[in-house]
Amino acid sequence: MNIKSSVNLIESYLELNRKPVGIKFFFDKYEFLNFHVPQRERRVTYCNSVQLASKGASMKLTKDNQACPNGAMALKMREIPEPMASGQVRFSRNIYCSLDISKSITDEMLFLKEEPVGISVMPLENYDVNPDVVVVVSNPYNIMRFIQGHGHFNGYTSNLRTVGLQAVCQDLTTYPYNTKDINITFLCPGTRLVADWQPNEIGIGIPFEKWFEIVEGVGETVNPFERNKQKETIVKRLQERELDASGIRFNENYDDGTYTGGKIEIIK
Hints:
Blueprint: H1 3-13, E1 21-26, H2 29-33, H3 46-54, E2 59-61, H4 69-74, H5 82-85, H6 88-92, H7 99-108, E3 118-123, E4 133-138, H8 140-154, H9 167-179, E5 183-185, H10 189-194, E6 202-207, H11 208-220, H12 222-225, H13 228-240
Antiparallel strand pairs: 1-3, 1-4, 2-3, 4-6, 5-6
């Protein structure tokens, strides 16, 4: 499996409205300058760059391109000012009930430890070298399927952390980068404003080291978890991409024969 084939597979298994986005950090100036993507001329919030990439855009960014101070802090392109580090800023805005709680938020967030020369943000399928993190923003059903794909090989997901702030820059990017583990986010008011995510969208951040394994896990769990209606569309998408659909089995699920009590009742 390579990057392009992995994207082809995941877009067959799941009905994604956005492209998986790859993030790569550059710590060598020569490597950054010679990376085959144009640098953005204007400023942009980091989360908006991810949103743009999820719709097909490709760009390189430096500290001069950063339009959000919190995103720049997470990416080590701006130092954390004392009022933020102490918790005073968020406490003064009534986000948290005490200064200690507010300070703990900053203390527990995992930012980049070394300042990068720059970063690339673009659709994962466009990379011909390995990125560092993959970000997928989609509906809760698809994020559930990513979790199940991860669980197929790794078991219970025990390290998820989110607080509704710095959702794309920290939850989905620097946290997975530092921990080498997946994380999810329900996004935050800031990114929902500047990046215009849809109300029903949430996200998952995946260290690239786990990407191929998770794609395989999503494929391996199609038969137990997907219902016949979804399996029909999966088969169709696989066939449209000239991929093997012979392993998809209908009328088979993990909970067959589990439920009792008669037909499901739905109140409308």
